[in-house]
């Protein structure tokens, strides 16, 4: 596991600035939630940590390495997306093993890691099934399984629950938190849902229009919102 330091990071697409000197420190093992309205720059920031977007200014470090110029595969992160992007023609087992095999991981190690992830995520009975034969929650677990088998230093989640129905969303929140309590992997979790943020985060980063409005523990934000925007956003029903 590792700490992540986002220091004065900026992003422009052409002449349009979408992030303005954003700084966030994420401690080793911490579960940090980036929350804010659609379009405020959450995914862009997460994608820069993942190496899927270049950084226009500032530095991002993972552990003791500045990663600005490292490709995604060298960053020791694993990302889980909203559309799980499972391979439809591969079984659950093959979906989880694929990224490891691509990296040339020893077959016995792959088998052992897939088994462990399947046990953690209650997927053992479904290993031979195809994604179309799974429920939405099971598919989301396979997507998490693909991240877990890589033993990354950092998990990155981009609105992983927004395609699920309300009941399943509540259940998966609990599952992701339990997973974090078990593995203690440093996590950056993006959502536009303030309830999700309040129930899951060790620390919340509230964003608006490419800037950070406030950083704090859930209760701190609730008790002492820095401004009307944070108060309105945290206090409004989802
Ligand atoms: P969020 O995830 O908070 O909804 P995004 O990070 O996706 O926000 O987007 C932040 C802003 O950057 C938005 O105005 C969006 O339109 C813009 N944006 C995102 N990706 C690109 C891109 N590849 N090219 C141009 N503009 C982009
Ligand atoms: Mg987004």
UniProtKB/TrEMBL annotation:
ABC transporter domain segment(s): 4-234
Organism domain of life: Bacteria
Keyword ATP-binding in annotation: yes
Record-annotated membrane-spanning stretches: none
Record's keyword terms, sorted: ATP-binding, Nucleotide-binding, Transport
Keyword Ion transport: no
Alphabetized GO MF terms: ATP binding
Stated family: Belongs to the ABC transporter superfamily.
Name listed for the protein in its UniProt record: Sn-glycerol-3-phosphate ABC transporter ATP-binding protein UgpC
Species for this entry: Mesorhizobium vachelliae
Lineage: Bacteria, Pseudomonadati, Pseudomonadota, Alphaproteobacteria, Hyphomicrobiales
Gene that this sequence comes from: ugpC
Residues of the full protein shown: 1 to 238 of 352
